[in-house]
Design goal:
Elements: E1 23-31, H1 37-40, E2 56-63, E3 75-78, E4 81-82, H2 88-91, E5 102-103, E6 113-116, H3 119-122, E7 124-125, H4 135-141, H5 144-154, E8 162-166, H6 170-181, E9 186-190, H7 194-202, E10 207-209, H8 213-223, E11 229-234, H9 239-248, E12 249-257, H10 268-272, E13 277-280, H11 285-297, E14 309-312, H12 316-324, E15 331-334
Parallel strand pairs: 8-9, 8-11, 9-10, 11-12, 12-13, 14-15
Antiparallel strand pairs: 1-2, 1-6, 1-15, 2-3, 3-7, 4-5
Helix pairs in contact: 5-6, 5-11, 8-9
Bound molecules: zinc ion.
Zinc ion (ZN) binds at residues 83-84, 87, 89-90, 98-100.
């Protein structure tokens, strides 16, 4: 990315083993994240031309001398932060707070090859190399599925709960799927886009609310006999979406927030009154990866449906445009 709105497909040097704990993987598929759109839309600075992308699945080509559990030839998935998976934060299930975490985005996963630091802690291998049909779902586990899953877990989704989901992007839609898998009784999604409403219903949404802001909150209260939702997943990151999420939650309920906050301002007073719990941040996708890979491998979930545009990597610029203009929910790129 050279500047907002300016993404180019260019030749770069192949990555090499830099640290003995590295792996080099050859990408089977990669994709564009909703969070890549923040700098693309000038909501975040782009100082120099930078490689982009942090979602990846592929075949291990080479490993450093200290890598012991990952081997060349394996099909692997990792998350957007490399983590050692051994430090106290990792052991507590918060691998995105790893004391040695490394952002994958700065390595640039929208590429043919990728260096993954801390390979043993970061990568999860599938039982064997999957069929092509399974690749989109496994790629979704790298970020959007794991992030939606974390939002649902952080919001204390569970059997019998009424869940509301703010955001109908890929993360919100997979938050719906996660809420269903975690046993939610009722799942209400805020969405005004017909194709996204349809996928939300396929993933388990029981109710759709098209209104936003105060009107949307009024609809949630109306649907829940004035109570509010037990668990609310905030999957956008704007001031309006945060406030909408908190106001949709019943007293004693919990908001799980995974949208990267941009321009959100919440005072202690606004948080004091509603008596809601808040937990969120960069999703520790690595915590959930083994379980998610198993659910996909067994055919129990199909998160890959969020990819509604598939392009060759060379057309990455069009992939960004399509998502920016909301012509696509999420673009899968094939190197
Ligand atoms: Zn760690």
């Amino acid at each position: 990315m050279y500047a907002p709105g300016d993404v180019r497909y260019e030749e770069r040097d192949d990555p090499t083993i830099v640290e003995p704990t590295d792996a080099i993987i050859r990408m089977t598929a990669t994709c564009i994240c909703g969070s890549d759109l923040w700098p693309y839309r000038a909501a975040q600075e782009v100082r120099d031309p930078s490689p982009f992308g942090h979602e990846y699945v592929g075949i291990v080509e080479e490993v450093g001398p200290q890598v012991s559990s990952i081997r060349p030839g394996q099909f692997v998935i990792g998350s957007f932060f490399a983590s050692d998976n051994t430090c106290p934060h990792c052991r507590a299930g918060f691998q995105t707070a790893c004391v040695d975490r490394r952002p994958i985005g700065s390595e640039g996963a929208q590429a043919e090859m990728l260096r993954v630091p801390l390979a043993d802690g970061t990568l999860v291998a599938t039982p064997e190399v999957p069929d092509d049909t399974m690749v989109p779902s496994l790629l979704a586990a790298s970020d959007v599925l794991g992030t939606g899953w974390f939002a649902a877990v952080a919001a204390e989704t569970g059997p019998g709960r009424t869940v509301a989901v703010v955001g109908d992007g890929a993360v919100g839609l997979l938050g719906v799927l996660a809420a269903r898998e975690l046993g939610a009784e009722r799942i209400i999604v805020f969405s005004r886009h017909e194709p996204r409403q349809k996928l939300a219903r396929e993933y388990g949404a029981t109710d759709i609310v098209e209104e936003r802001g105060d009107e949307g909150v009024a609809q949630i209260l109306d649907l829940t006999d004035g109570v509010g939702a037990d668990s609310v997943l905030e999957c956008v990151g704007t001031d309006q979406s945060f406030k909408q999420a908190i106001a949709s939650t019943r007293p004693g309920g919990t908001v799980g927030y995974v949208g990267v906050p941009h321009g959100v301002s919440l005072g202690a007073k606004e948080l004091f009154g509603p008596q809601v719990g808040l937990r969120g941040g960069p999703a520790p996708v690595r915590r959930f990866l083994p379980e998610l890979v198993e659910l996909i491998w067994n055919g129990q979930i199909d998160p890959g449906q969020v990819f509604d545009l598939v392009l060759p990597l060379s057309e990455v610029a069009e992939g960004y445009r399509a998502m920016d203009e909301r012509r696509a929910i999420k673009t899968l790129l094939q190197p």
